[in-house]
């Protein structure tokens, strides 16, 4: 009976490393290759697998795709609920209207998202890649359409090797039809978040699309078609930077998907129901199902690899085989390196606590700032064409351009007042302006006071208040210029 080198090492008391970050370059060097940084692309044919993790991925895909395609059509108070109106410089999120001045909230949200990625990676590894990454979700969708058109794994492999025939042409054409249609629908939906999607649909049906809408629909559709239809795992291996810096967030207590070498080796084929101990074998039957179901085409039994996206398909496949053989599940499972080495795993450790505390503080600050965000803004610009103007009645006058920004969705009448040193008068009086919801209204006003009471320049405060709702108010400070004695 042939015994593997790993088994001989273990028998001799030498402990082989359990988890090692393996890259494609390692395989090239080990195989005596030329040392190329990239290996030649070999098409991966992932095998279908059923199990708890595949069901979880399916649910995640349905939810995420449903949100993406459905939210673009959702209406809110007579307008699109989610819309990034770039020409108007307004961004609608349900009942919230954001302006360019509110971009600090978008910046904060991006920082929170990045920190969340660090936090959950330190805890559970590449959960984002396996269940929520757009590349994963759309690739799974394209694979499903490929299976519908061409059949299961063995049928697809046989079809690709077969010479061209009417049957092959029909199946390939049907697949391309599904891919292109879905990719164009994806591009259309993407543009629908920037141009009202109902207007966009009308323009598509009437062949009146503008050049920019046409470009972005085709561009985003083409990107989806290439990334999910052809590049697939190559995006994860070579284009995505996450795999490169994940090692900085991993430690020996991070939850990862790994093969239990101690239990599985030496691997070998056997009859169902056979006792592996009597045969001198481990639990691994060397069926290679874990390799066949992997969307990136790696062998999880070689250890932790940067190409692994933690989709857990190999766990479902291995558990299925273990169940058929009458063995305990979990030969491939979610675990930690410390657990494999029969050491205790620490969930709460310094980096996790640090990430968690900072994440909670940032999220709390972001929510608080958003809740305290003023629904009205006011910008005051003094007319620079003249420092001031002396009037015949002994008063001095300054002219101001006011920008009243109504961030609510309802129209309001706003009254402008001014206060400061001296007897200030505002013109026109009353200074009341009607401002529509989501509008920036330009209002020109004149402010006067006696020229030398007081003498010289002083600060004045402008205030705007909605007549219908006194809570809609804000202030802005400006400089009032006057002659000195």
Any idea what the shape is?
A: elongated
Strand runs, count: 16
State the major sheet.
5 strands, antiparallel
Contiguous uncertain segments of 5+ residues: 1-21, 23-34
Fraction of residues in H or I helices? 40-55%
Question: Mean pLDDT, nearest integer?
Answer: 87
The class by helix and strand makeup works out as alpha+beta
Instruction: State the helix count.
Output: 18
How far apart are the first and last residues' alpha carbons, in Å? 110 Å
Give the C-alpha Rg.
Answer: 33 Å
Q: What is the percentage of strand-forming residues? A: 15-25%
Q: Could you walk me through the main structural features you see in this protein, from its secondary elements to its overall organization?
A:
Helices cover 42% and strands 18% of the residues. It has 485 residues and is of the alpha+beta class. Among the domains are: 5-40 and 251-340, no CATH class; 376-480, Immunoglobulins (Immunoglobulin-like), CATH 2.60.40.10. Strands 8, 9, 10, 12 and 14 form a five-stranded antiparallel sheet that branches. Strands 13-11-15-16 form a four-stranded antiparallel sheet, with no helix packed on it. Residues 1-21 and 23-34 have low confidence and may be disordered.
Primary descriptors:
485 residues, alpha+beta, Immunoglobulin-like, five-stranded antiparallel β-sheet, four-stranded antiparallel β-sheet, 16 strands, 42% helix, disordered N terminus
């Amino acid at each position: 009976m042939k015994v593997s080198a790993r088994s001989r090492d273990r028998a001799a008391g030498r402990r082989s490393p359990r988890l090692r970050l393996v890259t494609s370059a390692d395989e090239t060097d080990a195989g005596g290759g030329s040392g190329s940084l990239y290996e030649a692309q070999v098409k991966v044919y992932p095998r279908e697998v059923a199990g708890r993790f595949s069901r979880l991925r399916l649910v995640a895909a349905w939810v995420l795709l449903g949100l993406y395609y459905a939210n673009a059509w959702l209406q809110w108070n007579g307008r699109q609920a989610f819309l990034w109106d770039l020409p108007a410089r307004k961004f609608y999120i349900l009942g919230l209207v954001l302006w360019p001045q509110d971009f600090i909230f978008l910046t904060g949200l991006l920082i929170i998202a990045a920190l969340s990625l660090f936090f959950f990676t330190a805890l559970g590894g590449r959960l984002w890649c396996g269940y929520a990454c757009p590349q994963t979700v759309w690739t799974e969708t394209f694979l499903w359409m490929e299976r519908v058109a061409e059949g299961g794994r063995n049928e697809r492999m046989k079809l690709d090797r077969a010479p061209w025939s009417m049957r092959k042409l029909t199946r390939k054409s049907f697949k391309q039809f599904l891919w292109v249609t879905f990719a164009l629908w994806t591009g259309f939906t993407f543009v629908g978040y920037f141009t009202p999607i109902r207007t966009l649909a009308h323009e598509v049906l009437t062949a009146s699309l503008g050049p920019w809408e046409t470009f972005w629909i085709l561009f985003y559709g083409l990107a989806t078609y290439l990334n999910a239809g052809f590049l697939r795992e190559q995006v994860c291996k070579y284009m995505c930077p996450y795999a490169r810096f994940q090692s900085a967030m991993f430690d020996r207590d991070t939850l990862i998907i790994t093969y239990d070498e101690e239990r599985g080796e030496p691997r070998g084929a056997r009859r169902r129901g056979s006792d592996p101990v009597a045969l001198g074998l481990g639990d691994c039957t060397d069926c290679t199902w874990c390799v066949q179901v992997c969307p990136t085409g790696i062998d999880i039994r070689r250890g932790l690899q940067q190409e692994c996206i933690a989709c857990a398909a190999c766990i479902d496949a291995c558990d299925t085989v273990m169940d058929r053989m009458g063995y305990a599940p979990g030969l491939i499972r979610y675990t930690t390196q410390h657990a494999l080495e029969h050491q205790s795993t620490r969930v709460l450790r310094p980096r996790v606590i640090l990430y968690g505390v900072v994440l909670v503080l940032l999220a709390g600050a972001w929510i608080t700032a958003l809740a305290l965000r003023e629904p009205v803004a006011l910008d005051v610009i003094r007319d620079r064409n003249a420092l001031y103007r002396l009037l015949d009645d002994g008063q001095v006058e300054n002219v101001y351009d006011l920008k009243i920004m109504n961030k609510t969705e309802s129209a309001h009448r706003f009254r402008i007042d001014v206060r400061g040193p001296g007897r200030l008068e505002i013109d026109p009086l009353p200074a009341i302006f009607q401002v529509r919801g989501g509008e920036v209204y330009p209002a020109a006003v004149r402010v006067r006071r006696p020229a030398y009471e007081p003498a010289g320049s002083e600060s004045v405060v402008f205030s705007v208040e909605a007549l219908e709702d006194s809570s809609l108010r804000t202030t802005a400070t400006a400089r009032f210029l006057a002659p000195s004695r």
